[in-house]
Amino acid sequence: MFEIVFLGTSASAPSARRGLSAQVVKHDEFRFLIDCGEGTQRQILQSGLGFRHLNHILITHGHLDHILGLGGLLSTFMRWETIDELNIYSGRWALDRIHDLLYGVVLRGAQPPLKLRMHEVSPGVFFEADDFTITAFPVHHRGSDCLGFKFEEKSHRPFLPDKAEELGVPPGPQRRDLVNGKTITLADGRRVRPDDVLGALKPGVRFVHVGDAGRTEELVEACRQADALVIESTYLESEAEMAKQFSHLTAKGAAELAVRAGVRQLILTHISRRYREKDVLVEAQAVFPNVSVARDFDVYQIKQM
Question: What CATH homologous superfamily does 2-156+202-302 map to?
Answer without folding.
Answer: Ribonuclease Z/Hydroxyacylglutathione hydrolase-like (3.60.15.10)
